Amino acid sequence: MKSNTRNDIQEDKIAAIGIGAMIVFIALILVAAVAAAVIIQTAEKLQQNAQKTGDDTADNMAGKIMIMQGNVANGGTGGLAVHTALESYLFMVRLAPGSETTALNAITYQLFCANGVTEGTMGTTNEGYAAAMTDHDTSITSLTPGLGYMFWIDGNTAGGADCSPDSGDTSIELYLHVSSGGTTFETLTIDQTDGGSVVV
Q1: 8-45 pLDDT, tens per residue?
Q2: What is the 3-state secondary structure (H, E, C) of the chain?
Q3: What pLDDT is stored for residue 80 in this prediction?
Q4: Domain 64-189, what architecture?
Q5: Which residues of the chain have pLDDT under 70?
Q6: Reported pTM
């Protein structure tokens, strides 16, 4: 009987060691599961952030107006507005590569000069007029990628500062904003105020 008792005690020790090992094993599995969940969640978040950043960058780069040339406008009537000589600018523009068709009224402009700021919306009477380079007399409602356009921008809109070519300022900052797109910045250098004088 004594020998049997010793055997029972020995077997009980082995069982206790087995239970401890099992507890440690289960704990390791739980820790590994939590770690895996954290890693997967972090990877998904990083991927979403990277994708959003890429989309925003593409929108800002693609949805922009590229200015190819800028001049002092000669004046005259252009569809929606009368652009007085020495008061307006004429720009040759096109959409940046990768852009989608853009509504004209989704484009706004700002002119910053020594007198203050004047701003307007393309396609709005007496603010901004646009036409295709192939047809100057017909106003447009949207811009198509790959085509060139002419923008007439009034530098002295109602309620704004006088930032026109004859305002006396030789350096004027132009911003063209595309709604849900990018912003184009250009410094206009006004050496001469004659119609047709280059400013960009």
Answers
A1: 555 556 666 777 788 888 999 999 999 999 999 999 89
A2: CHHHHHHHHHHHHHHHHHHHHHHHHHHHHHHHHHHHHHHHHHHHHHHHHHHHHHHHHHHHHHCCEEEEEEEECCCEEECCEEECCCCEEEEEEEECCCCCCEEHHHEEEEEEECCEEEEEEECCCCCEEEEECCEEEEECCEECCCCEEEEEEECCCCCCCCCCHHHCCCEEEEEEEECCCCEEEEEEECCCCCCCCECC
A3: 47
A4: Sandwich (2.60)
A5: 1-16, 57-62, 75-85
A6: 0.70
